[in-house]
Amino acid sequence: MEGLIFGSLEELPSVVEKLRPHRVVILTNTTLERLWLGKVMELVGGEAIVIPDGEEHKRLETAVNVWNMLVDMGFTRRSLLVGLGGGVVTDLAGFIASTYMRGTMLGLVPTTLLAQVDAAIGGKTGVNFRGKNMIGTFYLPDFVLIAHETLSTLPGEEVLNGLGEVAKYAVLKGKIYGMVRKFPGMTPELVRECALFKAKVVEEDFMEAGKRRILNLGHTTAHAIEKLSDYRIKHGLAVAMGLMVAAKVGEHLYGFDAGKVEELLNAFGLPTRHPFEAGEIVREMRLDKKAWRGRLVFVVPEDIGKVHVEEVGEEVVKRALEETA
Ligand SMILES: NC(=O)c1ccc[n+]([C@@H]2O[C@H](COP(=O)([O-])OP(=O)(O)OC[C@H]3O[C@@H](n4cnc5c(N)ncnc54)[C@H](O)[C@@H]3O)[C@@H](O)[C@H]2O)c1
Prior knowledge:
Elements: E1 4-7, H1 12-19, E2 24-29, H2 30-44, E3 47-51, H3 60-73, E4 80-85, H4 87-99, E5 105-110, H5 113-119, E6 143-147, H6 156-172, H7 174-182, H8 188-204, H9 219-228, H10 235-254, H11 258-268, H12 278-287, H13 289-292, E7 297-303, E8 306-311, H14 314-323
Parallel strand pairs: 1-6, 2-3, 2-4, 4-5, 5-6
Antiparallel strand pairs: 7-8
Domain 3-dehydroquinate synthase N-terminal: 49-159
Domain 3-dehydroquinate synthase C-terminal: 162-291
Keywords: Cobalt, Lyase, Metal-binding, NAD, Nucleotide-binding, Zinc
């Protein structure tokens, strides 16, 4: 993906300078305001808009407030909006930039592991509206700067949340699997490899008509688990549980070695067991009509680095769910 930069916040001035924006506005939240906004403004100047922290603020009302502030500031299409934060801020910044005056310049500085390897990559933006991410756009930013130092302030549970997606990439790509086995810590190289992998998959299928779907590995089950837990189980942990289920499905259908996934999740300190009954999860999966119109569609691993999408029989799914409960 063009405009994907790995390094440190120190790269910001030159990255911004290249775009020659008329003005720069940083969109961030109250947590990042305390931790990293000062440094960013020292480097690029500009003005800041600070929203409250939390997924519940990823909604239209917040976008409306920000649109109002941008109009008052005289923000134009030649201005640059920089989203500094986790996936909530980067999704919102993308949504706001893609809609304001039909699209302004946009830069993202993701500051959670999840946003660095997933949310800020691939041009999906959105807000929650009667359901998660119901309103949104596809809009590629002018740059995404992955500044490794920002992860230094990330709480352990947020690191764990991102590791769920890292484990997913390790199953999807042999090189990442190899790196993860050698270094069970989050190095800049590992973040880079994951982000580049997602960017490449997305480039081949921007609108999610085909290949991009492999990124849903583990997510059929994860979404059901998140819902059943009333979102008390965090996404990354649900993805870990879902990966284990997908691994078992792969084991039954193609002789995939599910032990490899279990080992990896254990090394990351991620859960390998889910707390629900197989029947409940299957029911919830079938309700997820938005995704698969009630069918049990899985990304199934045949081997590390080799997966495909298929509809799986209920018996196989139930067996995998029972074995991972
Ligand atoms: N657009 C996409 O393709 C895509 C993909 C995956 C997820 N998402 C979205 O991403 C969101 C989840 O993102 P998230 O997990 O980053 O959550 P988040 O943005 O809520 O961040 C998690 C918490 O960490 C804090 N934080 C962020 N950076 C920090 C830092 N460097 N130091 C200390 N604290 C920090 C945040 O303030 C927040 O409290 C969801 O809304 C999800 O829908 C989007």
